[in-house]
Amino acid sequence: MEPRTAPFRSTIASALLLAIPCLALGATSPSIPPAQEAVELTAWLHVEDLTMADVTVQVEVNGITQTAHANENGRVTVMLPADAEAVLRFEKPGHLAKEVVVDTHNVREGDFGQRRTRKLSIAVILHLERHMAGLTYAGPVGTLNFEQGGGCLAVEHDRRTVPAKRQATMTF
């Protein structure tokens, strides 16, 4: 009788390779219950000091805020529900925070609505505060939404800056 360990081992190895990305995704990203998931958004982050250890992403959906952390490559994946507006806030100490708004209200419309989960990727660059000359962003730097009737993705950028609020001077 021939030993059957080799095919069995390769089946286990294949199953583990498929499961590891799912486990990693679930461990680092906030998600909404599976029945509501409509958009899988992957953000690729870049920071000037090249370390992602202290980068956080706050995701606010329907008044609930959850926090995700970027992996060592700067990738963060979050699952967003349909018919909601999400605000993603990317932060790193010493860097200017950025917000991106994602409106999923028309995600199921048009030919695109046939797919169970839409996948989007964005890139976010966090700049050092000291290079911004005391300025901050006037509001969200990007807005993603789906057009009514067709479900096509619409993207808007807003890089306007305003003077940052100055902290009160301490007197000793």
- Assign the CATH topology: Immunoglobulin-like
The counted number of beta strands is 11
**CATH class designation:** Mainly Beta
How many DSSP H or I helices? 1
* Uncertain parts: 1-35
How would you characterize this protein structure?
The protein has 172 residues and is mainly beta. It has a single domain, classed as Immunoglobulins (Immunoglobulin-like), CATH 2.60.40.10. Helices cover 14% and strands 40% of the residues. The protein has 1 helix and 11 strands. The protein has one helix spanning 5-28, and strands at 37-47, 56-61, 64-69, 75-81, 85-91, 98-103, 118-126, 135-137, 142-146, 153-157, 161-163. The strands form 3 sheets. The chain has a 6-stranded mixed sheet, with no helix packed on it. Strand 5 (85-91) and strand 6 (98-103) form a beta hairpin. The longest helix is centred in the first third of the chain and has 24 residues, at 5-28. It is globular.
Describe the SSE topology.
Elements lengths: L4 H24 L8 E11 L8 E6 L2 E6 L5 E7 L3 E7 L6 E6 L14 E9 L8 E3 L4 E5 L6 E5 L3 E3 L9
Parallel strand pairs: 1-7, 6-9
Antiparallel strand pairs: 1-4, 2-3, 2-5, 5-6, 8-11, 9-10
